[in-house]
Fold this protein.
Amino acid sequence: MATSDPSSKSRWTFLTNHARVLLELARDPDARLRDVAAAAHITERATQSIVADLEASGYLTRTRVGRRNRYTIEPSGKFRHPAEAGHAIGGLLSVFTRRETEDEPSGLPGQDTHRPAQRDGQGHRPGPR
């Protein structure tokens, strides 16, 4: 049985710290590395090292805007592991950064995606958009 107890002896996760940093920068390209580190639950120094890795490998670019940095992700970059090498990282980014809307159910197995039809104050469904 799977457990989500953070105090369990096995502390592995599905996403690496590199993936977490990349996702945080995809969510907020103007984020300070201090904030990215806090969100990823790693040190600021580790975050700086990861950003340098990602930049050197072409997954992101850093642009100076005043006193801050802006990070641009290259979604066509490919995964590094041979098992996933044919896939672009953009797919991963879209899964974790997409905001679901009322008209866009998640479509994940086991989730109820049925929503009752919206009706106006007189009980009628709204027309096409």
Confidence is low (pLDDT under 50) at residues 106-117. The domain at 17-97 is CATH 1.10.10.10 (Arc Repressor Mutant, subunit A).
